[in-house]
Design brief:
The complex is a heterodimer. Chain A is an alpha+beta fold. Chain A contains two helices and four strands. In chain A, strands 1-2-3-4 form a four-stranded antiparallel β-sheet. Chain B folds into two domains: 104 residues, 3-layer Sandwich (Rieske Iron-sulfur Protein), CATH 2.102.10.10; 251 residues, Naphthalene 1,2-dioxygenase Alpha Subunit, Chain A, domain 1. Classes of the chains: A alpha+beta, B alpha+beta. The structure holds FE2/S2 (inorganic) cluster and fe (ii) ion (FE2).
Chain lengths: 85, 424
């Protein structure tokens, strides 16, 4: 397990092989929340446009989303709203 | 730079009465009103040295830096461009970055979670319905950026004024001194990667600027480190020396010891390091420049230059001067490292630990003088500090710069002339 940390976030990173194939296991160490990413998801992140990453960094998109807009992860807009240029 | 009409600005007239060609009044170092004006007219207007490109080598690297009392963050964005951001959240003003350095494409304020790209752009904020949805983002400000950021040979400067002379105009002849520093690397680059020591003194920042190229004090203040280290540098600061003190224009000044180093003619003699101890470096230099040019470079040595108002290159170490209050100043110090010169760099770090490290002798000697001087000028009489040393023997060199002997106060007089231009 490796940890990628900055003053803003701390995430542990490891390759998990409990399934039939390998996947990346990410854990937000400040909350214990875990997300797995398979190879195709990772490849898609590698190829995602910069605007996608910028939109993802908007706190209102997921974790700190107003309750009346529904659950966070499933409701990520597709494609995400265009962030400022 | 426009000159204020002294008839309509009594403060300008008062400052002119405190700074004369041959003396300055003690209150120029102690008066909070003068200091407040210096912040506005010098530190928040002219080009101020912020940091070096080698401190943010990778995309998304950042370091915390300062422009006087202002906290800034120097970032390198994903495309490689360098930005200088005010370290102040555009929501309610929290400090956004706390770590001295890191790698992050975006910064999230710890107070309410507003999130910014490392270019300053606002990326978003939590619970955006409180602002009417994500479209509000376009109307809300991001992090403030320095209006002008330019670099010369990797040295990044910022000006908090949107207009004024270009960096190249500001540096003038001092730029060539940075060239002289950089060419001591086989690849022509310095790297400020050795880490920083922070020395704080209870003294006015101008005491430090003046002292950096004061060639009159080393034989007294630094006699102990010169005798312990067996350094020949102290002897170069004498009236018998062919070294000169030079006003480079723009308030920039230097002690140019290269005539003495040339007279001695020993490669790396200026660093007190025999060739045999750094064979890889000497070979790399001769490879890069050819033997004759390399030997010239290694004989001439590194500059001793004070780039007004806050960048001091003292041969092997670099100081960044940061005023915090009229009587509080920090010097951020690092050992200069030359790209492609690992054997030389190791020695330079060791030498700098001895001179300016936490227990270093050179800077401790100076710090003692700064603090004593600050306490001294607070005494009522005599009211003036003398600036006449060498006034009668000043000359103009082939490049049109005013020069004095190694111990003359030519540099201080030049700094004060520039100071008046900015302040009045
Ligand atoms: S002060 Fe930064 S988010 Fe509120
Ligand atoms: Fe609270």
């Amino acid at each position: 397990m490796d940890v990628v940390a900055s003053e803003f976030a701390t995430v542990s990173v490891s390759v998990d092989d409990h399934g039939n194939g390998t996947r990346l296991r990410l854990e937000d160490l400040r909350t214990g929340t875990v997300r797995f990413l398979d190879a195709l998801e990772l490849e898609s992140i590698v190829w995602a446009p910069e605007s996608w990453m910028r939109a993802l960094l908007d706190p209102s998109q997921h974790r700190w989303r107003d309750a009346d807009r529904g659950p966070a992860q499933e409701s990520m807009p597709e494609p995400p709203e265009e962030p400022p240029a | 730079m426009t000159t204020t009409d002294v008839d309509t600005d009594p403060e300008a007239a008062r400052i002119r009465s405190l700074v004369l060609p041959d003396r300055v009044h003690g209150s120029i170092y102690t008066d909070p009103d003068v200091y407040a004006r210096e912040l506005e007219r010098i530190w928040y207007t002219t080009w101020v040295y912020v940091g070096h490109a080698s401190e943010v080598p990778e995309p998304n690297d950042y370091v915390r830096k300062t422009i006087g009392p202002q906290q800034v963050v120097m970032t390198r964005d994903k495309t490689g461009a360098i930005h200088v951001l005010h370290n102040r959240c555009s929501h309610r003003g929290n400090l956004v970055c706390d770590a001295e350095r890191g790698n992050a494409g975006s910064f999230r304020c710890p107070y309410h979670g507003w999130t910014f790209a490392n270019t300053g752009d606002l990326l978003g904020f939590p619970f955006n319905q409180g602002y009417g949805g994500s479209s509000a983002r376009a109307q809300l400000p991001g992090l403030a950026t320095a209006p002008r950021v330019e670099s010369y040979r990797g040295f990044v400067f910022a000006s908090l004024s949107p207009d004024g002379p270009t960096l190249r105009e500001h540096l003038g002849a001092a730029a060539e001194r940075l060239d002289r520093l950089c060419r001591l690397s086989p690849s022509g680059e310095v790297e400020l990667t050795a880490g920083w020591v922070r020395h704080e003194v209870t003294a006015n920042w101008k005491m430090l600027v003046e002292n950096e190229t004061d060639g009159y004090h080393p034989q007294f203040v630094h006699s102990s480190i010169f005798s312990i280290s067996g350094s020949g540098i102290g002897a170069l600061y004498s009236d018998k020396s062919t070294a000169v003190t030079r006003a480079l224009g723009g308030g920039h000044t230097e002690n140019d010891l290269s005539p003495e180093f040339r007279r001695l003619g020993v490669p790396m003699g200026w660093a007190g390091t025999p060739e045999a101890k750094i064979p890889d470096y000497v070979a790399a230099m001769r490879d890069a420049y050819g033997t004759d040019t390399a030997d010239e470079i290694m004989i001439d040595g590194s500059p001793h230059v004070m780039i007004f108002p806050n960048l001091f290159v003292a041969e092997i170490q670099l100081f960044q001067i940061q005023p915090l209050a009229v009587d509080r100043t920090v010097q951020h110090v690092t050992a200069i490292q030359f790209a492609g010169a690992p054997d030389l760099n190791r020695r330079l770090v060791t030498q700098c630990v001895g001179s300016v490290g936490p227990a270093g002798m050179l800077l401790a000697d100076d710090a003692e003088m700064y603090e004593r001087n600050q306490r001294g000028v607070a005494q009522r009489r005599p009211e003036w500090l003398d600036l006449t040393r060498g006034l009668h023997r000043e000359r103009v060199d082939d490049d049109g710069h005013t020069i004095g002997t190694a111990t003359d106060e030519t540099s201080m007089r030049a700094m004060w002339r520039h100071y008046l231009e900015l302040m009045t």
